[in-house]
């Protein structure tokens, strides 16, 4: 598993470098998939090529599911990721041998594509999530425009400092593109002091909990699993973080489970039960 985690860090960072290069070139070639909030760019495809084929080449037989699964197949040289990482080795003192058929890897070659096209690069991430028998157990989130790489593996460790005690009480991170009735509902269920933080990208919002920007990340509508597998694995790499859908259930990341989680999500490092109780009964049309 250490080898897979090392390779995931390498492909996420290399995919991120390609995103930076393309963004700076101004040649994004943006196309709408299903609307103005669902875009694909040349950056998505270039990062996908590096991340998807890099992992498939290093681990033949590995189930890898990418947001850009319909991108053109690679016809040129494939990036070969490193299978060791000195920084990772200093933190992880144990390893685990996992049968490849039990693993599913979910990758997002460019999270926050809309923000990427708008130049709001602080929200942009590349992500690799690991699931064993359908359960998220680890992940990598890389921020290409700041250089930060966050990773974690459940019951083994992570490389991120928990600063969540600095978050304002009853502060909730929500999508800037699908805010809906977030402020109204938060004040109703959490009190008048509830604070709504609008941000782009599931990766940015989830990692922001560690940085103390908010106590929880909340989404009430459907969301794709490549957006959340990595961050759930990192949240769970702590001994106290929790990540569930709005019914309080775990999310199935097995390859045959489908790409969409329909029941929203709530995650927090220390206050999951409070936020789950507040938001579990919201109706589906409250797209936060």
Automatic annotation (TrEMBL):
Pathway: Polyol metabolism; myo-inositol biosynthesis; myo-inositol from D-glucose 6-phosphate: step 2/2. It comes from the Eukaryota. It is a single-pass membrane protein. Keywords: Hydrolase, Magnesium, Membrane, Metal-binding, Transmembrane, Transmembrane helix. InterPro entries: CysQ/Inositol_MonoPase, Inositol_monophosphatase-like. Signal peptide: none annotated. Its main location: membrane. Its EC number is 3.1.3.25. Its cofactor is Mg(2+). The keyword Transmembrane applies. Gene3D superfamilies: 3.40.190.80, Fructose-1,6-Bisphosphatase, subunit A, domain 1 (3.30.540.10). It is found in: Membrane. SUPFAM superfamilies: Carbohydrate phosphatase. It catalyses: a myo-inositol phosphate + H2O = myo-inositol + phosphate. Belongs to the inositol monophosphatase superfamily. PANTHER family: 3'(2'),5'-BISPHOSPHATE NUCLEOTIDASE 1 (PTHR43028), INOSITOL MONOPHOSPHATASE 3 (PTHR43028:SF4). This is inositol-phosphate phosphatase. It comes from Oikopleura dioica.
């Amino acid at each position: 598993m250490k080898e897979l985690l090392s390779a995931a860090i390498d492909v996420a960072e290399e995919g991120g470098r390609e995103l930076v290069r393309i963004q700076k070139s101004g040649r994004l070639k943006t196309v709408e998939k299903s609307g103005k909030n669902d875009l694909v760019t040349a950056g998505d495809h270039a990062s996908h090529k590096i991340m998807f084929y890099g992992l498939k080449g290093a681990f033949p037989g590995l189930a890898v599911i990418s947001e850009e699964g319909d991108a053109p197949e690679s016809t040129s040289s494939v990036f070969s990721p490193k299978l060791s990482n000195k920084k990772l080795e200093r933190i992880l003192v144990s390893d685990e041998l996992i049968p490849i058929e039990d693993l599913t890897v979910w990758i997002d070659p460019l999270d926050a594509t809309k923000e990427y096209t708008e130049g709001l690069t602080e929200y942009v991430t590349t992500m690799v999530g690991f699931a064993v028998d359908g359960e998220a157990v680890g992940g990598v989130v890389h921020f290409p425009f700041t250089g930060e790489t966050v990773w974690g593996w459940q019951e083994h460790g992570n490389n991120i400092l928990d600063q969540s005690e600095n978050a304002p009480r009853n502060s909730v991170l929500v999508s800037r593109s699908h805010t809906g009735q977030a402020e109204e509902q938060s004040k109703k269920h959490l009190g008048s002091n509830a604070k709504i933080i609008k941000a782009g990208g599931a990766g940015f919002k989830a990692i922001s909990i560690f940085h103390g920007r908010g106590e929880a990340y909340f989404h009430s509508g459907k969301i794709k699993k490549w957006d959340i597998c990595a961050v759930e694995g990192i949240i769970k790499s702590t001994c106290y973080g929790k990540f569930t859908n709005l019914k309080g259930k775990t999310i199935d990341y097995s390859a045959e489970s489908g790409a969409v989680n329909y029941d929203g999500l709530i995650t927090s490092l220390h206050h999951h039960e409070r936020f789950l109780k507040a938001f579990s009964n919201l109706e589906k049309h409250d797209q936060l």
